[in-house]
Amino acid sequence: MASEDDVELRRITLTNRTRRLREIDVTSYAEVVLAAPIADALHPAFSNLFVQTEILPDQRAILCTRRPRSQGEQAPWMLHLMAIHGAKVGEVSYETDRLQFIGRGNSVVSPQAMGGDTATLSGSQGSVLDPIVAIRSRIRLDPGESATIKMVTGIGPSREAAMSLVEKYQDRYLADRAFDLAWTHGQVLLRQINATEADAHLYGRLAGAVLYANPSLRADPNILKKNSRGQSGLWGYAISGDLPIVLLQIEDPANIDLVRQLVQAHAYWRLKGLAVDLVIWNEDHAGYRQLLHDQIVDLIAGIEAGVTERPGGIFVRPADQIAEEDRILFQAVARAILTDSRGTLAEQIGGRSLQGISVPQLAVTRTLRPEPT
Q1: pLDDT in tens, 52-105
Q2: Maximum Cα–Cα distance across the chain
Q3: Would residue 1 count as lying in a domain?
Q4: Are residues 229 and 329 in the same domain?
Q5: How many whole angstroms separate alpha carbon 318 and alpha carbon 300?
Q6: Does the residue 369 lie in any domain?
C-alpha cells in the first residue's frame, strides 16, 4: 500500500532460466464494487448497474466510476494498470465484463479467459452488467532475461486525479519509491508496537476473520440460536455494538502472552485504520482474579495506553459478573472468539477445524393420512 496515495501495488519478477525465447501471458483480475460493503452485500446486482468502465489503451490502464444516483453525489474513480519493465511487450488486451471473462457455467477457479483457446480479452467496456478490471499482456523473455511487472489499483476523487495516479505509477522509479516508503512505514509501525513481521502476518489473518466472519472462529451454532437479546444488551457494559467485536477468554495467568498478542493486534489494526472493540473476559477461578486483572491492565498500558473503555478500544470484564444471557449475546455477536484453553493464537487461527453442526433429530408433528380414493 502506497503511503502517499490511495493505491495498492503488486510487484512480480519473472526470469527466463531456460536457453530459448519464452512468450508468457500475464493477466490481472479484480472485481469492481465502488460502493459501501453493506450496499454490495444487500443488492450486488443492482449496485453493479451504476458502474461504468473505460479502457485507456495508450496508458495500458482501465478507469471505473459510478454514475451518481443523486444530484449531490460525488462518485469516486477507480484505476487499474499494468506496467512492465525489462522485457519486450507484445499484444495487450482488456476486459471489464465478468461474464465475458468467466464464461457461462464457469467460475474464477477455471475462467473461460484462461483457457487455451482464448488468446486475447474481448475489450468490452462501458455500462456492463457485472464489472471487473482485467489486463492481459504478452511478454517475451530472452534466455537469462528478467522482467518486472507492476499491477496498480487505486482510487481518486475525480477522473483527473485518477489519470494523475495512472501517469505517476507508470514511472518505474516512482513505483519503486512507493515500495521503499511502504516498507519503511511498516517497519516503523511494527517497532512502535514492538511486534515482528511474523506477528503482523498473524494479525492480518485475524483481521480477515474480523472483516469477513470465519465460522471456525465464531461461536458454536447452538450458542447462536440460543441468543434472544439485541444490540442494546451490550450497552450496560459500555459497548455500543457498532463496531466488530473480538472476544478473548482467559483463565490461566500462565497464558498471559495470548493477551499480549491480542492487545498488540488491536494496536496494529488501529494504526491500519481498522476499528475493533476488543473484549477480554477474566475467567480466573483460582482466587487470583485481581492478580490476572492487574497483569492485563499493565499489558494494555504498556502497549496501547489510553484506549480502554471507549469505542474502538479495549474492555476488560470479570466473567463472573456477566449474566448468562449476556454471555450468550457476546459470543453470538463476536466476529472472533479466542480462549487460552485452545492453544496459541497461531494454532487457533490456522489449526482449528470447523466444528460439526449438530442437527436436531426430526420430530414427527403429524401423521400422513391417505388421500380418499
Answers
A1: 999 999 999 999 998 887 777 788 999 999 999 988 999 999 999 999 999 888
A2: 86
A3: no
A4: yes
A5: 16
A6: no
